[in-house]
Specification:
Strand content: 15-25%
Strand order of the largest sheet: 1-3-4-2
Shape: elongated
CATH topology of one domain: Translation Initiation Factor IF3
CATH superfamily of one domain: Hypothetical protein apc22750. Chain B
Structural class: alpha+beta
Helix content: 40-55%
Radius of gyration: 34 Å
Order of helices and strands: HHHHEEHHEEHH
Largest sheet: 4 strands, mixed
Number of strands: 4
CATH class of one domain: Alpha Beta
């Protein structure tokens, strides 16, 4: 096909008033560029001005090297990068859905976690679990900074502070057990043994730190939470997305700016 102007940079093809004529690159050179460059980037032809003086005209929009640089970083339309961004967004949403499903399962199962203050026999111990809760009791105190045991210090204050403080502390205890049960489920256990609380007043400002601790274990006579079903479902939904993302990354890994420069310089030297 004959061109009066370059399909890429629009420079005039043919004789020039000054310097050598501007010609399209050879068909063999163009075919190598076509094999290398993405379909949404390649033009139907390139001239000598498109591929010469790569360093000095690096930032010129019409220069092949400069155009490809802008293409790779997303300054110009790149359907591959756009597709990758969509896939990454889909993958992120899928992972968020998986975490939500997992949280829902754990919250439901954790209600059946059995808590022991001692260590019964036939419990397979797995690992340490703990929980921290800060409760605003509504009480101001100049008493000792250590509320352990609770009955020796907190009880009298509750009596004078009223039911509201009692309710706040009770909720704190329940939340503490809730979170330690949650952590136990994440360890795929169904029992907590050697469970205990400790209490500390924070700077005498009415805030109390409730620290709960115990050991997560497995009672073989009770059901244990399983994430297998939702993990397998999530794996099926994410593997395809990850594969597509990797294919795009691999495609451009062999089509870098350095690779293009080497291709062009190799062809120019051969002329």
């Amino acid at each position: 096909m004959n061109y009066k102007n370059c399909p890429n940079c629009n420079a005039k093809i043919g004789k020039s008033l000054m310097g050598k004529p501007n010609e399209l690159v050879s068909q063999d050179f163009y075919q190598k560029l076509k094999d290398f460059l993405p379909d949404d980037f390649i033009k139907s032809g390139y001239c000598g001005k498109c591929v010469e003086d790569l360093e000095t005209v690096y930032f010129e929009a019409t220069n092949l090297y400069g155009r490809y640089h802008n293409y790779l970083i997303g300054n110009n339309v790149n359907i591959h990068l756009n597709e990758k961004k969509v896939l990454e967004g889909t993958l992120k949403n899928r992972e968020q859905c998986f975490e939500a499903e997992k949280k829902k399962l754990v919250e439901a199962f954790s209600k059946d976690i059995v808590i022991y203050s001692n260590t019964p026999k036939d419990i397979d111990l797995v690992g340490y679990v703990e929980s921290f809760q800060v409760v605003n009791s509504g009480m101001w105190s100049t008493a000792s900074d250590n509320f352990n045991p609770l009955i020796s210090v907190v009880h009298d204050q509750l009596a004078s502070a009223g039911s509201k403080s009692d309710e706040l502390l009770t909720k704190g205890f329940e939340d503490s057990k809730k979170y330690i049960r949650y952590n136990t489920c994440l360890k795929k256990c169904n029992t907590i043994v050697d469970f205990k609380h400790s209490f500390s007043e924070l700077a005498g400002n009415g805030k109390i730190l409730i620290y709960s601790q115990g050991t997560a274990g497995i009672d073989k006579n009770r059901p244990v939470i399983s994430f297998t079903a939702i993990e397998e479902s999530n794996k099926k939904k994410t593997e395809s997305i990850k594969t597509q993302i990797k294919e795009i990354e691999d495609y451009f890994a062999s089509r870098t700016l350095t690779d293009l420069k080497a291709l062009i310089e190799s062809e120019l030297k051969a002329v």
